[in-house]
Write the structure tokens for this entry.
Amino acid sequence: MKLDLLRRLNTAREARRAAMLITDPESGDARVVIEAEGYADDPLRETLAARFRSGASGMVEAAGRNLFLTVELPPPRLVVIGAVHISQALAPMARIAGFDVTIIDPRTAFATPDRFPDVPLLAEWPVDAIPRIGFDAFTAVAALTHDPKIDDGALMAAIGAGCFYIGALGSRKTHGKRLERLRAAGASEAGLASIRAPIGVPISAQSPAEIAVAILAEVIGALRTRGAGEREAAA
């Protein structure tokens, strides 16, 4: 591999950006596509979009040539705001599904290692913890405390960072009041529309474990359809 291509791939990895190495096995020609830099004019744009969503590498045929696509996606993260009962069920399931999980909750009575073994746990206010861990396009955020003082700052940070999934616990009435607060705090209408609330796929979940299943299903769906709506709207 040429040194300049390797540098681009390493830079993308360090910045947690999705990248793809496109190689012609016959000629040895290769190039790199960085998702965040855009590829709307690329002749392989539909194939690239599908592979960036699935994360699957493999051979494709394009313009009479066989090309190998090597897809590199950052490990997806799930940041849960609130060390609550739902979080206790959600964290281990999300880890099994391949997510790096972090729990944030300033309430030390809830945020204890006994309740969340083997999961990074930050007993801090989200506004203090988030700048340190960073949000990005491969981060999902689930706000579960029902406390605006804890949830709202995290939601604003998630909107600003373009997180691929933003969900918040609460009824439609509760969410309506939440939208008013976030709008007053400067959130854009597009950002507000990105919040999934009530959180989780609609499976009539009742118990904390069932709600956790609904949330994780919605997070996985958002991960595997990243950007699809924007591309369809632009087509």
Q: What stands out?
A: Confidence is low (pLDDT under 50) at residues 230-235. Strands lie at 19-23, 30-34, 58-62, 65-72, 77-81, 100-104, 121-122, 139-143, 165-168, 195-196.
